[in-house]
Amino acid sequence: MKDYITKIPANDIEINLYCFLGEALLKTQLAEQALSHSITLKMNPTETKEKANEFLKQNQCYTFGHAIKIAIKEQLYSPSLQDSLNDFLKQRNWLIHKVICGNEENLNAGNINEELFNKIKSISDNAEIIQRLIEYDLIEFCSSQVKNMSEIRKLLKLQEQGLRIRK
Predict the structure, then answer these.
(1) In terms of C-beta density within 10 A (0-12 exposed, 13-18 middle, 19 or more buried), how is residue 85 classed?
(2) Mean per-residue pLDDT, 53-68
């Protein structure tokens, strides 16, 4: 059957779409990882590294939505951060489950509009913001646990400056 398939190379618009989708998926997964690490540390602040790593391994397989349910149940985040996580979950779910829905004809024709690119890029940008919010929340949590976070704060500031320069 393989012999009967004619592969059509992607055009520039399709390649851009794949790049935008790849970036958004990667940044979303990085935000999911940040959330898993945060939940692990907040729920196990006095555990050994080994026990925390066991807990992390169990929680890393959860979807973003399931991780948020845990965060709500355990009241791990401020209402504003929780609202941001809930809002991002809707965007993430659209990206993962519905990016094609409603765009089938355009995708099949290789006719992808700017609105779709902008929506995907917005999700990518929001994933990065969510990751940063989780990181800063975790820094505050660790500080409240009498951990010195000054070096981490310096690294994040340097990283943010680098991001601003590139944009």
Answers:
(1) buried
(2) 87
- C-alpha to C-alpha distances, 130 to 94, 100, 109, 152, nearest whole angstrom: 16, 24, 34, 18
Between residues 15 and 107, which one has the greater pLDDT? 15
Question: Using an 8 Å Cβ cutoff, are 126 and 91 in contact?
Answer: yes
* Domain range summary for the chain, segments of one domain joined by +: 10-166
Supply the pTM of this predicted model: 0.84
| DSSP state letter for 77 | S
Residue 11 CA to residue 75 CA, distance in Å, equals 47
- Identify residue 122 by its one-letter amino acid code: S
Residue 76 falls in which region: left (phi positive, over 0), alpha (psi -120 to 50) or beta? alpha
**Which burial class, exposed, middle or buried, applies to 148 when counting CB atoms under 10 A from its CB (0-12, 13-18, 19+)?**
exposed
pLDDT tens string 148-164: 888 988 888 888 777 66
Single-letter amino acid code for the residue at 101: C
